[in-house]
């Protein structure tokens, strides 16, 4: 037995003959190597996502640059809109190719390039306003590339990793990436506390860029057998097919609505950060602690969620939504009870619980759609869902008006109702 096969069996606890009914027979030979490469690739990208995050690190950097508040508030919507809306337009083109892996590789290099250019601009330009807008524009390009890679990744995963092991593979990507991010967060906490230099942020961009580039080389080594090219369609034809799927497949339609409601979990994070700043009267850098909390949540939960996703991704959706509701109720204590004894450290469980919930939500929706979609139509199923979620994100960008006009309490109750509706609707979905 090779070291690769041994490591694969250690991760999956698969000591029996491999079961490859859900992938082509000629892919079964490469399964251990593909599984391990996928884990390593994802570990690097998840680490990079922790270093440069539209929900946390980028707002911190743009705030350092003195960017206007409206620009900072648009970071997460731009990331989601850029990554989700174009997918319907490219899925038909991807289907025309016998191999879909090169699309992810090209997207990964593009994402690394965008981060590298951001690092160079931040290092050598003095006009902070120009740098801020340039970084946001590069984020849009980064996100479009991410959308192309997402369609390719799900299709390649469906071809190279069998059902029953996809959730574990996704969870190990998150776990190992979280471990690397935990080291980075710990460094910020213990060695760079109080550091507020542009060179620190230049380093974050540069390291994240290199991680994406290395991840692209790793993904290029995955052995993907040529697949079916039937059904290659123009974007207009793809839209028509997508509309047909929504009309005839009620479970798929309800999944998209459920997934949209599940977005309340990541949308909560910026408001939790706002409340954390209100709770804490101290004026120092919490960035390291927040990265550590998010990483711990990912590390602790991902192995458990991965196995649960392979057994029942629907059950994992409900558990994730329920945990997020718990984090909201905990946060409301800090809203309604203004006490001098309630500080940032008491608030940390809110971020941890919601981080655990978000880890489960991501795994559940990814595993469900990969397992649910027919192989030949998988790119269309994925891209239609992501495009519609992108449209929903445009609406979600206005959700912050609730907090602005009515306060954080009403914002939290609004998201709580969305999550209750998510759990309720999930019972209408077909089991896979």
TrEMBL record:
One Pfam family, short name: MFS_1
Location of the Major facilitator superfamily (MFS) profile domain: 204-432
InterPro entries the record matches: MFS (IPR011701), MFS_dom (IPR020846), MFS_trans_sf (IPR036259), Sugar_transport-like (IPR052528)
Keyword Membrane: yes
UniProt keyword terms in alphabetical order: Membrane, Transmembrane, Transmembrane helix
Top-level taxon of origin: Bacteria
An annotated Gene Ontology molecular function: transmembrane transporter activity
TM helices/strands, residue ranges: 60-78, 103-125, 131-153, 174-193, 199-219, 256-274, 286-305, 317-337, 343-361, 381-402, 408-429
Keyword Transmembrane: yes
UniProt-recorded name of the protein: Permease, MFS superfamily protein
Origin species: Psychroflexus gondwanensis ACAM 44
């Amino acid at each position: 037995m090779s070291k690769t096969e041994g490591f694969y069996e250690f991760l999956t606890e698969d000591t029996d003959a491999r079961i490859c009914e859900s992938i082509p027979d000629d892919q079964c030979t490469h399964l251990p190597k593909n599984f391990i490469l996928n884990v390593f690739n994802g570990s690097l990208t998840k680490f990079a996502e922790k270093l440069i995050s539209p929900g946390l690190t980028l707002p911190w950097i743009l705030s350092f640059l003195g960017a206007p508040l409206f620009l900072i508030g648009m970071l997460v919507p731009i990331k989601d809109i850029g990554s989700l809306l174009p997918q319907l337009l490219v899925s038909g083109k991807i289907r025309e190719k016998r191999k879909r892996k090169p699309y992810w590789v090209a997207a990964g290099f593009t994402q690394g390039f965008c981060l590298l250019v951001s690092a160079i601009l931040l290092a050598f330009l003095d006009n902070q306003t120009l740098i801020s807008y340039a970084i946001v524009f590069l984020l849009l390009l980064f996100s479009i590339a991410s959308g192309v890679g997402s369609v390719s990744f799900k299709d390649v995963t469906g071809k190279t990793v069998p059902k029953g092991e996809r959730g574990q593979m996704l969870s190990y990507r998150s776990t190992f990436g979280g471990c690397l991010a935990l080291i980075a967060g710990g460094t910020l906490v213990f060695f760079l506390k109080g550091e507020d230099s542009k060179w620190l942020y230049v380093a974050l961009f540069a390291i994240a860029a290199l991680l994406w580039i290395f991840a692209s080389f790793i993904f290029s080594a995955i052995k993907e057998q040529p697949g079916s090219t039937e059904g290659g369609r123009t974007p207009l034809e793809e839209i028509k097919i997508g509309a047909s799927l929504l009309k005839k497949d009620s479970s798929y339609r309800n999944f998209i609505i459920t997934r949209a409601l599940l977005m309340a979990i990541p949308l909560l994070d910026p408001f939790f950060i706002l409340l954390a700043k209100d709770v804490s009267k101290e004026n120092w850098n919490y960035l390291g602690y927040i990265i550590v909390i998010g990483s711990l949540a990912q590390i602790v939960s991902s192995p458990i969620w991965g196995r649960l996703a392979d057994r029942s991704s629907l059950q994992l959706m409900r558990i994730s939504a329920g945990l997020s509701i718990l984090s909201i109720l905990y946060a409301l204590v800090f809203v309604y009870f203004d006490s001098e004894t309630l500080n940032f450290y008491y608030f940390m469980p809110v971020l941890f619980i919601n981080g655990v919930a978000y880890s489960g939500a991501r795994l559940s929706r990814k595993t469900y759609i990969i397992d649910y979609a027919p192989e030949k139509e998988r790119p269309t199923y994925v891209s239609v869902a992501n495009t519609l979620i992108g449209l929903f994100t445009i609406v979600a960008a206005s959700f912050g008006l609730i907090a602005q006009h009515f306060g954080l309490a009403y914002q939290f109750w609004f998201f709580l109702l969305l999550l209750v509706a998510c759990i309720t609707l999930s019972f209408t979905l077909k089991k896979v």
